[in-house]
Records
---
Amino acid sequence: MNPPSHTLAVFGLSGATGRALLAAALARGWTVRGLLRTHGSLAGDNQAAVPGHLVRVTGELTDDDAVLQTLEGADAVCCVFGPRAPYTDVFCAAATARVVAGMQQAGITRLLCQTGGMIGPGQRSLPFACLTALVHRQQPAVMADREAQEQVVMNSGLRWTLIKPPRLTNATTVRPVQAATDLKLGLLSQVGRASLAQFTLDAVDRADAVGARLFVKE
Ligand SMILES: NC(=O)c1ccc[n+]([C@@H]2O[C@H](COP(=O)([O-])OP(=O)(O)OC[C@H]3O[C@@H](n4cnc5c(N)ncnc54)[C@H](OP(=O)(O)O)[C@@H]3O)[C@@H](O)[C@H]2O)c1
């Protein structure tokens, strides 16, 4: 039996994780609908050789109509946005709440949301726990926003999965990804965006990923 094909709405498509997700989904023949702040921001991505299909919607994550338009016809949703350097933007909880509201309105139930291994409670080595505490002290508003984002997801009533990576890399080799609610992360833990993209797409159809706050690493 062929694996199911999906129409995936992606918020944060122009980022490094979003692009890895796009490449992996198109290679599987899926349709990807992405909300882009700037229409040309994926102009260089070559889709000619892949079976899937990309639909761009231009707009802001603060615009209900743009979010709803991105969700049209989707059967699963990925949120992979986050602040860019200097990592001071506080927008993730509000944007995720808007996506959740749009999904509820559109009757879409499957949500996968990527946050990070430093957000909220978790199993961390002592050095990684110290680094996490330091980042929380230096960026309290940003970290509180990400914790609030996780609460929005967990309280959404949707079939949600939180994906919580440590450091992301741009390694192109796809390796197995470990994932568990109690996976211990350390200072050297990392995961490649290409590996994580395959994991995320597989998780769309994994019943055991629903309602799980999954820490991941290679
Ligand atoms: N980088 C890491 O090592 C790391 C580690 C753990 C977790 N994470 C998390 O994993 C996710 C993906 O990270 P990444 O490094 O691959 O992403 P990235 O390349 O930094 O891309 C960020 C994405 O978020 C969007 N974005 C940023 N600020 C925005 C705003 N104010 N309004 C609307 N959209 C905005 C960007 O859109 P534009 O292109 O329009 O700017 C882009 O699509 C994020 O949630 C990140 O926090 C990252």
Note: Strands lie at 7-11, 31-36, 53-58, 76-79, 110-114, 159-164, 167-169, 178-180, 190-192, 212-217.
---
Amino acid sequence: MTTRDATELFSEWALKNRDEGMESGHANSVNEMLNIAIPMLVGPFSAIDVGCGNGWVCRKLQSNDNCSKVVGIDGSIEMITKAKQKGGEFHLAKLPEWAPSQKFDLIHSMEFLYYLKDPLEMLKIFFNEWLNDKGVLIAGVDHYLENVESHDWPESLNVHMTTLSEEQWRQGMVDAGFTDVETRRVGLKLGFVGTLAISGRKP
Ligand SMILES: C[S@@+](CC[C@H](N)C(=O)[O-])C[C@H]1O[C@@H](n2cnc3c(N)ncnc32)[C@H](O)[C@@H]1O
């Protein structure tokens, strides 16, 4: 059986208001991720949230006094429709094909990268084409090799997921050119090994 496109699945979820469950379910991990990434930036910063869902992280970033601009992108039409209704700059954009017309100081993504066939190639594109010098990337993934509980997600959702280990993510960041590369577990709670948060800086 062929897998379905992740963006179609998430459009269905948006129509059933399951974006709200992701917003509350991912909040602890994202708060920790932003607390890691924002102090790595100096002065006012522009930001993009990749795979932004209903846009909740963009609205959170907008409330930061140092955030001069924030853009959200997602390949799901229903997610982007919801995001736009709540206000802000959002684009319907399918990766890896889409490219922004400007570079950013912060690239954030939560629970998005592993839906791509080649997420490590996307890290290189982020580094070379999307990020300003001294910019920071922070990405969170809950589907990864060490999270055994997540191994059946591709089959149960019938969606492609690329399963990488913590070390493969770390090496992928280094190979893309990032410095100060760190991988950490965030959003830890009973019965959950944590979101793997991957961060690094463009020199
Ligand atoms: C698990 S949801 C996470 C949404 C949001 N980051 C959050 O934490 O609530 C993954 C999102 O990635 C989007 N997505 C998946 N594959 C994509 C692709 N190839 N291009 C753009 N967006 C994609 C989906 O439409 C979905 O909204």
Note: The mean pLDDT is 97.
---
Amino acid sequence: MTSDAIQGGFDLISWNPNIEEMPRAQLDRLQLKLLKLQTHKMYDFSPFYHERMRAAGVMPSDIKTLADVKKLPFMTKKDLRDGYPDKLFMCDRSELLRYHASSGTTGKPTIVGYTRNDLENWSESLARAMTSVGLGKDDVIQVSNTYGLFSGGLGFHYAIEKMGAVVVPASTGNTERQIELIRDLEVTAIASTPSYLMYLGEVAAKMGIDIKKDTKLRIGLLGAEPWSDRMRDRIYETMGVKGINCYGASELSGPLFSECSEQQGIHIWGDLALVEIVDPDTGEPLGPGERGEMVITMLQKEALPIVRYRMGDITTLNDEVCACGRTHPRINRIQGRVDDMIIIRGINVFPSQVEHSLMQHPELGNEFQLVVDRKGHMDNMLVRVELKPEAFTDNIIELNALRERISNRLKGTLNVSAKVELVQPGTLPRFEGKAKRVVDRREY
Ligand SMILES: [Zn+2]
């Protein structure tokens, strides 16, 4: 296959306003066509993936149905690290327009390159997502994600401009000024992490600004860390802001997908990405509704190929047509990370489950921490959680009774017992980026 023939395939799917409600059978055919093209392109132009396919004994011509995607070898973050900085790229440098890099907190950073089409598809994907929650050109959207090498800030920035809304490129930090901007520029939506939005709410209250009454902020485009429905309810109750669950990763481009206004799962645009759920241990595909690790194949990437990339996120797939009319598959709320999952006395515990359980108690604030250590062969988990200012008391009997209720509920949710420590409001660390909830002191 020549590169001209491949390019021809892309013309077919230039922006089409009806693509989001395309009948499912047609979407499946489009995905298969794109998967075949992408597989050919990687085999021809990506020495890394060519070698990977040869080692697995699979040729592009082996992809005859969508289910054949499982014949292709997985990619992991390690592949991107090993290929640092650009060994995995499959285009000429002259075709690149931008680089982004991951934070590199756990080793070498990973570098992602973008061609013009890669940037265009990224903005397209996120613009569709924001449109699906009712945002449009009359909105003023503040981007409180980091600008720079991190893909969050610029990703939202260009997608907002593509949609025709006004962008406020606030980036992170200087929270008081961010709150003034929200009020003075009549900002209607904010892109940030959920924990930063809650922090912003706390700071606003201290400044005597009621987000609900004094501002027009109504939608939060939230992602980059796991969070629960209870946290969403709390954001709505305290700030009047509807929290929209967004999804993406720097390796895929950046933030790409979100829930629609039905809020029944995150739409993964099928013309851009093919999503699978697999058993995290065996790598075997799982069916709709079965909980496992999300694996994504980007169907139109030009610079950095992403094929059967193991996201490390635990979720379930919903293949039914959404009430909003969109036919593209949905993933449910991320329930944890394969690598964030902690095992306590043989039981899998996700910080998101702990959060969900804690949020049932109106006396508790938003911040918590899990501290795990091991005495002898026995794992112990301590849950440290902040009380709300109004629930703070020196009445030991009351506090003990509350601790007991929290502990019982945790045991019911997690099937493992945990000690609970109630701490004063404002004492646990705050995070402007991803919240780090787990302190694991065990030696492995
Ligand atoms: Zn929908």
Note: The pocket of zinc ion is lined by residues 260, 262, 267, 322, 324, 326 (CB under 6 Å).
